[in-house]
From TrEMBL:
<keyword id="KW-0812">Transmembrane</keyword>
<comment type="similarity">
    <text>Belongs to the ATPase e subunit family.</text>
</comment>
<keyword id="KW-0406">Ion transport</keyword>
<comment type="subunit">
    <text>F-type ATPases have 2 components, CF(1) - the catalytic core - and CF(0) - the membrane proton channel. CF(1) and CF(0) have multiple subunits.</text>
</comment>
<keyword id="KW-0007">Acetylation</keyword>
<dbReference type="GO" id="GO:0015078">
    <property type="term" value="F:proton transmembrane transporter activity"/>
</dbReference>
<keyword id="KW-1133">Transmembrane helix</keyword>
<keyword id="KW-0999">Mitochondrion inner membrane</keyword>
<dbReference type="Pfam" id="PF05680">
    <property type="entry name" value="ATP-synt_E"/>
</dbReference>
<keyword id="KW-0375">Hydrogen ion transport</keyword>
<dbReference type="GO" id="GO:0015986">
    <property type="term" value="P:proton motive force-driven ATP synthesis"/>
</dbReference>
<dbReference type="InterPro" id="IPR008386">
    <property type="entry name" value="ATP_synth_F0_esu_mt"/>
</dbReference>
<keyword id="KW-0496">Mitochondrion</keyword>
<protein>
    <recommendedName>
        <fullName>ATP synthase F(0) complex subunit e, mitochondrial</fullName>
    </recommendedName>
</protein>
<keyword id="KW-0138">CF(0)</keyword>
<comment type="subunit">
    <text>Component of the ATP synthase complex composed at least of ATP5F1A/subunit alpha, ATP5F1B/subunit beta, ATP5MC1/subunit c (homooctomer), MT-ATP6/subunit a, MT-ATP8/subunit 8, ATP5ME/subunit e, ATP5MF/subunit f, ATP5MG/subunit g, ATP5MK/subunit k, ATP5MJ/subunit j, ATP5F1C/subunit gamma, ATP5F1D/subunit delta, ATP5F1E/subunit epsilon, ATP5PF/subunit F6, ATP5PB/subunit b, ATP5PD/subunit d, ATP5PO/subunit OSCP.</text>
</comment>
<keyword id="KW-0066">ATP synthesis</keyword>
Length: 95
């Protein structure tokens, strides 16, 4: 097997290759920063959406729990409004 002797590459071609490589690296860096900023905005919107959903869900659970306690009080034969007034009166006396 004969090995081919490499030809010498023109300095102009070498400079062109290196300059295109550097241009590609700079372009990639700029493009990456642009995509990062876009993704941060999308991520923040998603966090806001999930947070609002969780807050709404917690509020809904609290309303259901309060209603359940009122229904339970009526089932036990206790007026929830009177029980609440008594509890608030006892708290004022203890302070």
């Amino acid at each position: 097997m004969a090995t081919a002797v490499p030809k010498s590459v023109s300095p102009l071609i070498r400079a062109g290759r290196w300059s295109l490589l550097l241009v590609g690296v700079v372009y990639g860096s700029i493009h990456n920063n642009t995509l990062k900023k876009r993704e941060q905005r999308v991520r923040q919107k998603e966090i806001d959406r999930v947070t609002h959903h969780a807050i709404d869900e917690i509020a809904e659970k609290k309303i259901k729990a309060d209603q359940s306690m009122i229904d339970l009080a009526y089932a036990a034969g206790v007026d929830p409004n009177q029980a609440r007034i008594k509890q608030q009166g006892q708290e004022k006396k203890s302070h």
